[in-house]
Amino acid sequence: MVTKLVMRIQALKNMPPVTETVPEVIQRIFASHQITRADQQVFLAALLSENSLSQEEQIQINQVLDALRKGVLKVVD
Length: 77
Hints:
By secondary structure, the protein is mainly alpha-helical. The protein contains 4 helices and 2 strands, in the order H-H-E-H-H-E. A two-stranded parallel sheet has the order 1-2. The chain starts with a helix and ends with a strand. The mean pLDDT is about 80.
């Protein structure tokens, strides 16, 4: 399991730069009621970046996770 996570992190480091900000992605997710794998990777990349997330961004990401748990959001590819 840890090996898969390390491989995913390494793959993310080679991803092209993200053009949307975390708040923009979150706004789009809630507007469409859908989250894509690419959106999830934006969050992971933000968490792994050298720039720390603001408290508001952390709260917004937690709101997305809560909506996923409650079934409000649909995961699509």
